[in-house]
Amino acid sequence: MNLKTKALKKSLWVYHMSGGSCNNCDIEILDCLTPKFDIERFGMVLVGSPRHADVLLCTGIVNKKCVERVKEVYKQTAKPCVVVAIGSCACSGGMFRDGYQMGGPLDTIIPVDVYIPGCPPKPEAMIAGIVKFLEKLK
Amino acid sequence: MSAIYIFLSFVMVFLSFSICGMLAMWMDRKVTARLQFRVGPPWYQNFADFIKLTGKETLIPEKANTFMFIAAPVLGLIATTIAGTIILLILKNQVSFSTDAILILYLLTIPSLSIILGGSASGNVLAAVGISREMKLLLGYELPFICTLVISAIKSGTTTSLGSIIQFQQQNGMILGSFSGVIGFIIGVLSLQGKLGLVPFDLAEAEGELAGGSLIEYSGILLGLFKLTKAILLIAGPLLLISLYLGGFSISSITGVITGILKYILILVLFILIKNTNPRLRIDQTLKLFWGWLTLLGFAGILLAIAGW
């Protein structure tokens, strides 16, 4: 493993992107960023622009209006980046999979690296998912 | 002093200031975390951030002016390092030319100008809002910061040479000990806080509403250069304030270096305290503070200094 990958593992900057979710997963992501869980000790910081991001946290089913926007944000992100699908909707479509507004799930639009299911997933589950991914990252 | 000597000290300053600056930024993050009952990042956090940024892709937006977009962060970095080199050479050799404090003042505005140039070259709307704020902030804090310099210059016998100011303080005690010195020091700390973009005055990079503000389009190594500039500025700015008000320090003896570090930590702690106890000000409040209260305080300080207090 070279130095840059090691540094990437130690400093993941997170960009939060909602693809038409019910806001439940978004609230759990914000919970994950609170001082109680303190993910800054792993070097993770919330950033405002996809240009600065290493991790795209994507929530929601990605409805038809959001498809182009999700693709655009993925294009704007500086590579290498990690895409994390958060919540059952982003992973598989969940209960909305037959809905008329369904544009996703996320992995049919952009390549997804980590799936964290749950409706919504707990902050602990998100941290566990990212840690499992980091262990596999070479 | 030969050209090679100056170039070598430039490189030395670049390396040592960026390493020390990143450690100072880590101290800032760690203390902030402890104040919020968190654990905080490990000591190598800022180095990891920088190394990671060098490995990332550098995207240049279609609408951007490519030359200006790339040149702006380099310009800011070089200007900050030159300012740091001048301050350190003066501290080391105790010699300087007659108006070097004014030169350093000009060099220290270039990092802000480079953010303005880079932001306007990126062709982004949010960056445009960010640079308009940065510009107003620059106009705001420059006037009180000049007052800081003038107070120190008058107190040390009307000289704008940093070397003579330090020598004056070594013979007659710190300027901070006098009444006008305290006023000048307070104004200097607040202006530097604005120059560094720390929290009460971080409106140019407002993560919340401007998504990174003027730096929104920067990625990869160019963003890393901006972080490096901020790290070097975090050392060079306080060093200037130490030379102007806290009597400087000598870097040839161990006790001198230790007192220098202690003085630096005093100013850093002030920065962190102000940062963690204040919410962000709006742009109109910032201008009211800088052009209203602080400038008035600065003029009062100048009058006191002329009166000999």
Report on this model:
The complex is a heterodimer of chains A (138) and B (309). Chain A has a single domain, classed as Rossmann fold (3-Layer(aba) Sandwich), CATH 3.40.50.12280. Helices cover 34% and strands 15% of the residues of chain A. Chain A contains five helices and five strands. Chain A has helices at 3-10, 24-32, 66-76, 88-92, 123-136, and strands at residues 13-18, 45-46, 55-59, 82-86, 114-116. In chain A, strands 2-1-3-4-5 form a five-stranded parallel sheet, with helices on both faces. In chain A, helix 2 (24-32) links the parallel strand 1 (13-18) and strand 2. Chain A is globular. The model of chain A has no long low-confidence stretch (mean pLDDT 87). The longest helix of chain B is centred in the first third of the chain and has 33 residues, at 3-35. Chain B is mainly α and 309 residues long. Chain B is globular and about 55 Å long. Chain B has one domain (3-307). Chain B has helices at 3-35, 45-55, 66-93, 100-121, 125-155, 162-172, 179-196, 207-210, 220-245, 254-277, 283-307.
